[in-house]
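Example with several molecule types.
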Amino acid sequence: MPRLPDTALDQLFRLARSQNTWRATQVTDCLLQDLADLVKMGPTSANSSPARFVFLTTQSAKQRLAQHASQGNRAKILSAPVTAIIGYDTEFYEKLPKLFPHTDARGWFAGNPALSETTAFRNGSLQGAYLILAARALGLDTGPMSGFDNAAVDREFFPGGTIKSNFICGLGHGDPSGVFARSPRFAFEEFCSII
Amino acid sequence: MPRLPDTALDQLFRLARSQNTWRATQVTDCLLQDLADLVKMGPTSANSSPARFVFLTTQSAKQRLAQHASQGNRAKILSAPVTAIIGYDTEFYEKLPKLFPHTDARGWFAGNPALSETTAFRNGSLQGAYLILAARALGLDTGPMSGFDNAAVDREFFPGGTIKSNFICGLGHGDPSGVFARSPRFAFEEFCSII
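Resulting structure tokens for the full complex:
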């Protein structure tokens, strides 16, 4: 495989910025389906695919989320064309007979809630990152956020009890005037080693 | 921003496959630095950047990992040109005065081990996914794996006690003959909703 051109690396990583304010340009349901079609191809352990995504597109749906968010995140949630809730299904293993049909992977997790929770949170978070980068690959900006009451959002959007909220993320076309100055990053040897 | 061309979407998501066997082509330290330079630009909560990466390039280093891995993962670890350990620093907040200098974000986490663990695991996993997709963007194949004894790997590679292993990932150029058939994926409405 070739290295992608610098313009693509810039769009995915180097120049992309988390957005705080948004232009009015809408995000179509069709584009959300394109996004999901990319996200679901990213790798997860035993193809477990534990992430569950709720795309809030109406003001009433965004308001239901905003009431459980920190003060500083409410306007971001309400003004983004779409705000996604990234959740994960702690009973993801019930879908493994479909997703990983060549062996009994359900038995690796069923009856082991600690392993199931860790696997769902890890792989659901990987899929949350796939969402961020797939959105950028499709020309969208993102605004991921953690500042909300997870338990209250779970009751509001996932009343069944098996799905837990992970983080939330605005999707749309950002207004560059709302972007903060880039924060410092580590030097290589501060977070990596080669042995 | 434009939508990336289909060839790039294929390389990142649609045609990329987790590898089980590897060609001998080496991965240079310079390419690992390019990879880290992309990964570190991906978004994390409060720029917390909790992931810590150990790139195992020598047979002796890979052997130290392989001894703690499941039987099925040992040959993959030893044969990959590079096997990366993706860890996360549970005391990432000690670096926030550098990474998030405009406010006292350290105080949000210090003394709250439950929030620190959750934040480190979530955001360290996001960064693990950035590693997978950044590697693909640079023309590398990946082979992420979870089957190993995390506590033993922590003792072996992170004896200080504050860094925990998350998952591991082969990096290099895969041998397509070792790839499994693509497993099924969900239809949109099985993992997404629009409200």
